[in-house]
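NR LBD domain-containing protein, Mya arenaria. Tokens?
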Amino acid sequence: MSQCLIKLQKLDPNPTEHALMCALVVFSTGRCKLINQRLVEKCQAMTADRLQLEVRRQHADSPRRFAKIMDCLVDTRGISDMFNDESQEYLANEIMREKLPIFKN
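Tokens:
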């Protein structure tokens, strides 16, 4: 996880890049069952295109910057998968649910 944070700090995304990165995370189709998956995929593609344009506009001298940003997003997905798995383990544990109020249903 710290490697991912270091990568993001080195990239130092501007506010627009940061917002578009967050939007890409939100528009992830593999996280749950969706009513209109195609619409979400279309929004994700449009957001990725906008991010790529923003990167080209702001960082014309860094041709690999967009790829580095996308790599960071892939890394963050792995971290979030790990967090979700651990949360499910805690929720399945009756003692944890009793002792830690955050895990109560």
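The chain has one domain: 2-103.
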